[in-house]
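Summary: Need help interpreting a holo structure output

Steps to reproduce:
1. Submit the protein chain below together with the SMILES for zinc ion.
2. Request a joint structure prediction with the ligand placed.
3. Inspect the structure token block that comes back.

Expected: a single structure record containing both the chain and the bound molecule.
Actual: see attached output.

Input attached:
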Amino acid sequence: MKFLNTIINNIFNTIFPVKCISCGTSGVDLCLTCISGSPPAERETAKWIFPLYDYRHPPIKKAMWLLKYKGNKRLASTFAEILYEKILEELSELAMMENFKKAILVPIPLSPKRYRERGYNQAELICKELIKINNLRHGVDIELINNVLIKTQETEHQARIRDRRVRLKNLTNSFGIKNVELIKNRNVILIDDITTTGATLNEARKILKQASAKKIIAFTVAH
Ligand SMILES: [Zn+2]
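--- attached output ---
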């Protein structure tokens, strides 16, 4: 099956060759040279948020768009490779200084409506790739906990959500926690593709804190 997939992929790539969106080099969506030449995120964020690149840089902006709206999973894996290095770097320090161990990866969720429309969550794609990389490298003790932090649907569906599924809600009702036990006393690494004002990450952090999460940090591809 894997062999067949490879053949199909190869045929597909011959008909629609993959090219770097920035320099045109064939074989990749965004080549390593262009990624490493991208300006790092420098605008100020909260100390617990670690963004990689400046969103205003056109290739990064375009890559984010392809990942978010065009379901480009190869980009999720490319960015996960780079995020992974950054996570390891921060974790080695945090593990020593603050006993930040056995962390759980939590993707910033989409609302159910948005998820149905898009068919996938780009932050979740990145998380899955991060776990793949970590397993391959026999890396650190992290696990993906999906569908625990959920985005509650606005207005008409709120009554139903308020029912039993969502145990905790914050003031603006934008996030909920489905199973508090999975969060309690755990170190959390939030993952999102982009942060702009940090408001989404802040809200997610607030509700995770209410659910008794230990320490919460966040990584994003762009800012
Ligand atoms: Zn390139």
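--- end attachment ---

Reviewer comment: Confidence is low (pLDDT under 50) at residues 155-159, 164-171. The two ends are 39 Å apart (CA to CA).
Status: needs-info
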